[in-house]
Amino acid sequence: MARKKQYNEEEVIKKAMGLFWRNGYEATSVRMLEKEMGINQFSIYSSFKNKQGVFLESIKNYKKEINGIKEILRQSNNGVLGIKQYFYNFLEFSTEGHIRKGCLVTNSVNEIKDDADPEVMEELKKFANEIRELFVSNLKQDDKKDESKIECQADFLMNNLLGLSIASKVFHQNQLENIIEVTFKNL
Amino acid sequence: MARKKQYNEEEVIKKAMGLFWRNGYEATSVRMLEKEMGINQFSIYSSFKNKQGVFLESIKNYKKEINGIKEILRQSNNGVLGIKQYFYNFLEFSTEGHIRKGCLVTNSVNEIKDDADPEVMEELKKFANEIRELFVSNLKQDDKKDESKIECQADFLMNNLLGLSIASKVFHQNQLENIIEVTFKNL
DNA sequence: AATAAAACTAAGCAAGTGCTTAGATTGAAA
DNA sequence: TTTCAATCTAAGCACTTGCTTAGTTTTATT
């Protein structure tokens, strides 16, 4: 007794995610989302409540895609080397054609004002910590490291991952590879 | 035979810089600049041409303030240790009250779209490379390091500096200190 | 005191923002 | 085949954006 949706919500979110990733949150207008997602504003608002809703859903989708990479590492079970591989994957992942997009989460952390959108910020912090925990569990796979050293190294690795997202916009490919090599040299 | 300006351009730019730093480029409107700088829109446009002009001038001012720190290090002449000190200074510098603002340049690199504002982007890249060169010259103060190793380490250090700017918004103070310690542990 | 150029104020412009709503279209159940 | 709620389109809402302009005030020089 009703009409069927003419679009698939997951499909249109993927497109929205791409736009947010390339463009940033604020710089992406609902009109642009309309075009990119290929659906009318009304549909956007009825499916995702508002622009923030589209963004939160985009972050969820991003998580899913990242989880794909994470899973590979978790299974490989080779500690620090696994993390290093993750860094290289990340470098590829954050590049589209010749455009370096960085990491959607890092970009957003930097853009979104803590107090202006606490809900989104909370989501982003959670995400960053999930990756950090992944690093911790991988570091534990290598023997003879005490707990506190592992925590420090995880922070250090996160810092370099966050940095790469920005560095990728300013530095050349070979510099980015240098960075990864030096980062893992003494771990 | 003309009226005198009722404001000092350097003074109002300092205020503008603070606002851009806290708020980001896009999120700062000319109306907000009016209030913060304490002058009328007309004056803003006649002194600095447009919003981008105010921003470029703000970056120059930021450079000046950073140069203050840089000079201390240059004179101290103690290589890697000098850079480490710079990192700690940066951490303080990027904090105002309890609010972590990160680095104005890093924030901007992340926000400004390469092709949308190439002029600003060029300025930011130059700035990043100036700091990198400072690192290179400090690294050379320590003996027995070959050229290529120094270049790699400079990239690595820049990556950690860029990272800190974002990490400071997501992690706690002690984690930030951990990061610096691990970064310099094996240099 | 008269002049005129620079600096000021404040109103206003077109275009863009996030979001809503009135009305036409669809399509599965009655 | 009729019904009617979900889905669509497109126009429009109030508000903000960067920037301009008409008109007033100031002030060093004549």
From TrEMBL, chains A, B:
Cross-referenced InterPro entries: Homeodomain-like_sf (IPR009057), HTH_TetR (IPR001647), Tet_transcr_reg_TetR-rel_C_sf (IPR036271)
PANTHER family: TRANSCRIPTIONAL REGULATORY PROTEIN
Ranges annotated as DNA-binding: 29-48
Superkingdom, natural source: Bacteria
GO molecular function terms attached to this record: DNA binding
Residue ranges annotated for the HTH tetR-type domain, each copy included: 6-66
Signal peptide from the UniProt entry: none
Keywords: DNA-binding, Transcription, Transcription regulation
Name of the protein this chain belongs to: Transcriptional regulator, TetR family
Keyword DNA-binding annotated: yes
Keyword hit for Transcription regulation: yes
